[in-house]
Design a protein that fits this description.
311 residues; alpha/beta; FAD/NAD(P)-binding domain; 7-stranded mixed sheet; 5-stranded parallel sheet; elongated; binds flavin-adenine dinucleotide
Length: 311
């Protein structure tokens, strides 16, 4: 027999942890299902989270889990949700972890499993990712201030990202890795701000344990740079909710109303599972808290007119 909960929160990042904490404080019986693969695990330090600036991603999660588990009605399972389907009175969630299967029943499911990143296929990029090369400019721009930086990407928002990055350095080279995502008009606009565009293909990142030396191009040129930013492609792995028939947008993210409700009654989503692009830890946590308040009100029922209070 599966255990029965008021709410199953799938995903224990900041959105899920924050939602789980608020729901258990609303006296709900909550199961937090998490595969424990922090999206920001490539980095040693997280920045910009009020009172926790510079904390390690794992420590932030550990503190969040401890706070949640300190309450009656809180339960945490380290496992991977493989299927969510609607059943009488709620949802059945199937999970699997290292060959061990389990299941749970919940009246409501909150999806907070975030995004996955795919980096451009460049040698050694993964080795420098999170220490010398980052993706979140707001998070790591400050740590790279005034350095000679590279911005590598093949996405049409590269020019915008270069303009943003100019807030932190005036020595920036944009590498399009052979793509044509920067128009000649954009290139001229960047040049006017002292930002150079290099359209050659990138072979690898050069450096060692003492630091990054530069960007190596396919023609063998080494362009000296001490760090930089990369534009990954983002995707949401939401196959496990396919059985519910919940609507996805063209980017594969769950479609939600202004309150985190998906197209399936009782199925909610928060954090980066719904975001058109990456957020920040504190934004995801805030979204989790907001949707938790909606879920609690919906479970009580008859409180639709109060929903605006949690917009
Ligand atoms: C390298 C890097 C550095 C970053 N640095 C910062 C920073 O310094 N400051 C900042 O504010 N933001 C930073 N961010 C952004 C921040 O990590 C995200 O905004 C935030 O983690 C999004 O939170 P979330 O709860 O929506 O999703 P996530 O944090 O991605 O959490 C999703 C959780 O769901 C779990 N999961 C996924 N699928 C399943 C499944 N099927 N079953 C069970 N569990 C599942 C995962 O294991 C994970 O624990 C960084 C991001 C990256 C990639």
């Amino acid at each position: 027999m599966s255990e029965r909960y008021d709410v199953a929160v799938i995903g224990g990042g900041p959105a899920g942890l924050s939602a789980a904490l608020n729901l258990v404080r609303a006296r709900r019986r909550v199961l937090l299902i998490d595969s424990n693969r922090p999206r920001n695990s490539a980095t040693l330090l997280s920045h910009g989270y009020l009172t926790r600036d510079g904390i390690s991603p794992l420590e932030l999660r550990k503190l969040g889990r401890e706070e949640f588990l300190g309450y009656e009605g809180a339960e945490h399972r380290q496992t991977v949700a493989t299927d969510v389907r609607a059943v009488d009175g709620g949802f059945e969630i199937a999970c699997e972890f290292r060959g061990q299967e389990s299941s749970a029943l919940a009246e409501v499911v909150l999806v907070t499993t975030g995004l996955a990143e795919t980096l451009p296929d460049i040698g050694q990029l993964r080795a420098f990712y999170g220490t010398h090369v980052h993706s979140c400019i707001e998070c790591d721009g400050y740590g790279k201030r005034d350095e000679p930086l590279a911005l590598i990407g093949e996405h049409p928002d590269l020019t915008e990202r270069a303009l943003l990055l100019s807030q932190w350095t005036d020595d920036l080279i944009v590498f399009t890795n052979g793509s044509d995502v920067v128009s000649s008009r954009d290139e001229a606009a960047l040049a006017a701000r002292g930002i150079r565009v290099d359209r050659r293909r990138v072979a690898s990142i050069a450096g060692d344990r003492h630091g990054m030396q530069g960007v190596v191009l396919e023609d063998g040129t080494l362009v000296p740079r001490t760090g930089g930013f990369v534009r990954p492609e983002w995707s949401a792995a939401l196959d496990y909710v396919a059985s519910t028939g919940a609507a996805l947008d063209p980017d594969g993210l769950l479609v939600v109303d202004g309150h985190g409700r998906t197209s399936v009654p009782g199925l909610y989503a928060a954090g980066e599972s719904t975001a058109p692009g990456p957020q920040q830890l504190i934004v995801a946590a805030g979204d989790g808290a907001r949707v938790a308040a909606v879920i609690n009100r919906d479970l009580i029922g008859g409180l639709e007119h109060l929903a605006d209070a949690v917009q």
